[in-house]
# Entry
Amino acid sequence: MQRYFVDIVNNEVILSQDDVFHLTKVMRCKVNDNIEVVNKATHTAYLAVIDSISPLKIHIQEPILKESELEKDVSIFFALAKSDKNEFVIQKATELGAKRVVLFQGKRSVVKFSNSDFSRKEARYISIAKEASEQCHREYIPEIKYVKSIKGVKEYLEDINLLAYELEAGKATDIESELKEHKSVSIIIGPEGGFDESEVSFLKELGFKLVSLGKRILRCETAAVYALSVISYLLEK
Ligand code: SAM
# Structure
């Protein structure tokens, strides 16, 4: 069943213009059809019924009690990567339950963002996160942030912060116990060129713990999906 993030004002369900178009023209909904809506303000999901198409009128039928968020806050720092890898990681991080994606300019990032680049892409990134949240039936849309360099990660630290470092590849890692002991977790993934030693030193001073993502050197986008898959599996098993 289709899910939309909406505003609910005085019991009136208000969809964005894009979502009205999607529901009426793409999904060709009919009167008495059910949809799911999530109140953006309270992150509460409801079963709703379509009362009329033009104008679109919807009423709330009942709350949906099944929640799909992870029990702990999980965020990912992802070094800017080439082409649509950033969009891919935003979509997959959303499906895997992340509450925040922070893009950063790694020293060895091939892609360089000018000051205006992120703001030009931000709306698209947010739209990708919103659509992915609706598709996987979440109650939250992850925040998408950008920091110019690795120094900016200080603003978004979690209770435990893990540094997926390629030179740790194959060494023993105990992400599971770190998760058990802490309220929230972040994982940082370097760019195609990997982490610069000065970045690793800076992150270690911030308290990041080095972790391996296995014996093989993964592409940055694979590493992001692997790390978030491990974390969400461990939190939900
Ligand atoms: N250029 C680096 C090299 O050849 O060693 C590889 C960088 S890798 C493509 C991009 C990022 O993915 C790394 O900076 C790291 O964050 C993560 N990564 C990939 N494989 C990993 C592994 N086995 N253990 C930990 N992190 C890994």
